[in-house]
TrEMBL record:
<dbReference type="InterPro" id="IPR005119">
    <property type="entry name" value="LysR_subst-bd"/>
</dbReference>
<protein>
    <submittedName>
        <fullName>LysR family transcriptional regulator</fullName>
    </submittedName>
</protein>
<feature type="domain" description="HTH lysR-type">
    <location>
        <begin position="1"/>
        <end position="58"/>
    </location>
</feature>
<dbReference type="GO" id="GO:0000976">
    <property type="term" value="F:transcription cis-regulatory region binding"/>
</dbReference>
<dbReference type="Pfam" id="PF00126">
    <property type="entry name" value="HTH_1"/>
</dbReference>
<keyword id="KW-0804">Transcription</keyword>
<dbReference type="InterPro" id="IPR000847">
    <property type="entry name" value="LysR_HTH_N"/>
</dbReference>
<keyword id="KW-0238">DNA-binding</keyword>
<dbReference type="InterPro" id="IPR036390">
    <property type="entry name" value="WH_DNA-bd_sf"/>
</dbReference>
<dbReference type="Pfam" id="PF03466">
    <property type="entry name" value="LysR_substrate"/>
</dbReference>
<keyword id="KW-0805">Transcription regulation</keyword>
<dbReference type="GO" id="GO:0003700">
    <property type="term" value="F:DNA-binding transcription factor activity"/>
</dbReference>
<comment type="similarity">
    <text>Belongs to the LysR transcriptional regulatory family.</text>
</comment>
<dbReference type="InterPro" id="IPR036388">
    <property type="entry name" value="WH-like_DNA-bd_sf"/>
</dbReference>
Length: 294
């Protein structure tokens, strides 16, 4: 069980004031203060400085927080490790591009590889998945690109091609450059998604932005974006693995191939020093080997 003083510390960092921290934990304000002072005495450092009514972390407090915030997740992993082999649920998360592109082909093999586990998969954007990993709500995440190697253990398992896509016989099929595609409406994912960040970075490198397109329509669903593009309602930018059926059927085509083509790793992300390291390595190798056969 996590030390209550650490729970108070982590909550105070999030809430910024002892009043809100006390309300969140159903404690008195003096109890919150006592917990923090006890931690400071135990570790011999000042954790907070006061700025008006708000508390801010000191440099030592920030270092302490970076380590302490991992403890709830590690406790959850320890509980899972103790129940390993007892049909414990395996909670994991994937980005929408991976979930809607790779997982339909990976999921049957994962079920076969883990017959004693109950799988619980969630779809979220990259930012949310990393937050859930930090909180111990999931055991691993499959994301596009990389996360901070200082905070996470990142293992690439698949290399995916990220392309501009539109209707094969559509109005923008003849566009040869990214700038020319700006005459089309842009069909794009929400802010915080890995594919949105990749696109914005690529546009910025060419002096362009989403606002330069004829319009910008945001959908959180990859299949919806691809169907809209195939119906000639605009152009989208997506991983080809997610668009494979539409590309193979000839409804979608790559646009501006000579000017825009990016390859990015899909990454298996866990917390470092996990009690489930052996199981996580097995899962990573299994997923990597399955993807190699796609």
């Amino acid at each position: 069980m996590l030390d209550p003083k650490l729970t108070t510390f982590l909550t105070l960092v999030e809430e910024k004031t002892t009043v809100r921290c006390a309300e969140a934990l159903h404690l008195s304000q003096p109890a919150v203060t006592q917990h923090i002072r006890a931690l400071e005495a135990e570790y011999g450092v000042k954790l907070f400085a006061k700025e008006g009514r708000r508390l801010t972390l000191t440099e030592a407090g920030a270092r302490f927080y970076r380590l302490a915030r991992r403890l709830p997740a590690m406790e959850a992993q320890l509980r899972a490790a103790l129940t390993e082999g007892q049909a414990a649920p395996l909670h994991f998360g994937v980005t929408r591009s991976i979930g809607e592109g790779l997982m339909p082909r990976l999921a049957p093999a994962l079920l076969d590889a883990l017959p004693a586990r109950r799988l619980e998969m969630r779809l979220q954007n990259t930012r949310t998945l990393l937050e859930e990993l930090d909180k111990g709500e999931i055991e691993f995440a499959l994301i596009e690109g990389n996360a901070s190697h200082r905070r996470y253990c990142c293992r690439p398992f698949y290399t995916a091609r990220f392309s501009a896509l539109g209707a094969a016989e559509g109005r923008w099929a003849g566009c040869r450059t990214l700038a020319a595609l700006c005459s089309a409406p842009l069909l794009v994912r929400e802010t915080g998604s890995g594919s949105r960040e990749i696109l914005e970075s690529a546009l910025s490198a060419r002096g362009l932005a989403a606002e330069d397109f004829a319009a910008c329509h945001v959908f959180e669903s990859v299949p919806v974006l691809l169907e809209l593009a195939a119906a000639d309602r605009g152009v989208t930018f997506a991983y080809e693995v997610a668009a494979a059926p539409l590309l193979e059927s000839g409804r979608l085509a790559r646009l501006a191939e000579g000017d825009f083509s990016i390859t990015r790793p899909f990454t298996f992300v866990t917390l470092p020093d996990s009690p489930l390291a052996r199981q996580e390595q097995y899962l990573f190798e299994h997923i990597r080997d399955l993807c190699a056969r796609l």
